[in-house]
Amino acid sequence: GSELPLGHPERKMKGRIVFLGNNVRDEDGQVALFGDLSSAPVTMEASRMCDAFGLLSGHAIEQADAEQAYIQSPLGGTETYIRLPKELQPDSWKHMRDPVCKLVMSLYGHPDAGGFWLQKRFGICRFYRSFKVLAATMAVYVDDFKASGPVEALKKAWTLVRSKIRTGVCGEDIVLKKASTPFLDEDKLPEEDDNEPGKLADAACSVLMNVLYGARLARFDLLKAVAGLASKVTKWSVSCDKRLFRLMCYINDSKGLKMRGYVGRDDKAEDLFLMLFAGADFAGCRDTARSTSGVFLGTYGKNAFVPVAAQAEKQSCVSHSTPEAEVVAANLALRTQGLPALEVFDKVFGRKVKLFFEEDNNTANSTIKAGYSNTMRHLGRTHRVSLHWMHEVFQDGQCEIRRCDTLLQAADIFTKGFTCRDKWVAALNMIGIS
Q1: Ranges in the chain, pLDDT < 70
Q2: Which domains, from first to last, does the chain contain?
Q3: Residue 17: how many CA atoms within 13 Å on its side-chain side?
């Protein structure tokens, strides 16, 4: 709050005391080893699933953050003793040569602090059972809590959380040009630009990682452009400079765009289902001839649509045909997004939620339904993809594969470099960005 006027209640000095985890010794002076006490942070996809549940009629979404999170949880495991800085030592320690004191709470920096904070947050399984009774769901990222569910259930849920945890309520000049899409026409880039080192090589990684966070969280339309440039950071060229400049022009020109989701007043929990889209561009990379897999997952209903997840990922080796690239993309979609989402939604809604898989390539569609292909017998060795596994996914009836019209393929925005404004706007609308 340094920008606030003097005397403002939010203008205050802040500091952080941390445990130096890089300098921990045991009783013999050897480097101390800690057992892995895992802490599983929430994913962005789970956060948006929480949003979808909270948009139902009679439901709400609320947020809070834990105050001084880690030091609310006791430190378990092996007893740990620490040295305090001299300015923090009490006067009674002055006669001691090298005083130490026992570390009682999970101070930030301790290798096991996150794990013990996780135990504090959830009490292992106790919170899950309580929230299931309340019909509420909660996504937690370290000290940030997001809860959704029926309004009355949320009050009880926060009371349950606050009975264990203290929480607070949330709340060089370059002229950029107008750009209607984040992509350049690749055919118009001179080939010699690919061989000349770019001027932005040193800064490119930092810029792209900043954009990537926003892209993954709320601007799925940036994913393909960022993923394509990120694969070039070790061989940055003049053409990469031009692509990055175009991307930043587009971001500046589209600051008003937002990713939007909605659930109609008449939609009930039993009306909601999942739709999973997958697509690929065949040999889209002009350097490696590899394809890019695109994935989009959304929650749908009679009058409901909530974006959940999206991916744009270059395939690990060259595909030999469009159907092959599409099958590889379908495998990625089912394995990393579709099936994990079903696990969450089945528990949140207390029923078997239907998942429709949308595929716009007829050959890929029939290959997955058949579970084998004479022309793709190499997939297991090259792409590590099992056609028989994909076939089995659709046998129990919870997942259904459907033919999708190419104009309605929501995953195309993650695989194709659109340069036509009208087609780009149509693609944006399909993933909820406007």
Answers
A1: 1, 34-41, 120-132, 169-174
A2: 44-169 (3.30.70), 187-253 (no CATH), 262-430 (3.30.420.10)
A3: 12
